[in-house]
Amino acid sequence: MTSQLDCHPASAEETLAAHRNVFDVWPMDQDPEVHLQKRVASPKSQRANYFVGTVDGVVATSLQSFPTTFQVRGELVPGIQIGSVHTHADFRKLGYAELLIEFTEQYEAERGVKLSALYCDIAVKYYEKMGYVLAPSKAGWFKTVEWSDERLANVTPLEDLNPRIDLTSLMQLHQETIFKRPIGVVRDEVYWDYTLRKFPNDRFWGLKDSSGNLEGYLRVGIAESRGQIVDWICRDDNPEKIQQLLTAFVKTAKAQSLSEVGGWLPDLAEVEELTSLSDRPKQITMFKSLSDELSLDDDLLQTANYFALIDHV
Which of 89, 93, 255, 270 is the most buried (most CB within 10 A)? Predict the structure, then answer.
């Protein structure tokens, strides 16, 4: 029965059908037509390439492939990140999604893509059998009420940043730091603009040295009294600076009346001194090499500890 599936890049009409199909899992509004309008207009959707598997012309399964440039050991590597893998209820349990992923990987590899990444929300065995390798995926949260004023008395709070005004400094710090890692997501100005449009209401705070130079920053999405770290970086990934950034963030968050803050954090002793870390139950980072020239060694996988939620697709 799986032989009936026709996998290919989606037409405009098939892309709309894919948007309608995902309403049962990822609704963007209670009204299906409003959901469709919002999904089509979202910056995330506009950046994706769509692939579908059809049965007798009907979209049975779909996914988004996001062009992504990685740096791997100092070299620019063309990659993709796969998201929104979905199969319509009428076609589930037939292996269609797996076939579509395999087709997408082959299609992209034939066009020079060497690395695929995804963020797993199901049992990782599903993707491991397809060749994806699990990377460390940690998260940690701070309850600000547990941090006394005495503990934070000598901590300098972070400074407010305007991402549009301070974009050059943010880009430079990010670029300089990720190219010292075994792997990182490269962000040019177009990509930065995309992330700012993706979540336009996020707050930015910065850690500066005595000369006013930016040493680290945090980008935070706020809902009610909860702040989620969606992006962050510290110069040279210095563990002490990371600890300083997070401690200052707790003080800043407390002044902002945020009761809980946190998100994806690296598995470092300096972070564990501040809060306990646990494996993320969802949004689990996984990689697959699409080229014989690219190996995924343990050092590279461990560096996924430093990936940021804003790059999640």
Answer: 270
Nearest one of 287, 312, 301, 232 to 265, comparing CA atoms: 232
Length in residues, the chain: 313
Interval 197-251: pLDDT, tens: 999 999 999 999 999 999 999 999 999 999 999 999 999 999 999 999 999 999 9
Q: How far is residue 14 from each of residues 9, 63, 86, 300, measured CA to CA in Å?
A: 9, 11, 13, 37
* Angle at 203 (CA atoms; ends 139, 177), nearest 5 degrees: 60
Tokens representing 256? 């902002």
Within 10 Å of residue 283's Cβ, how many Cβ atoms? 15
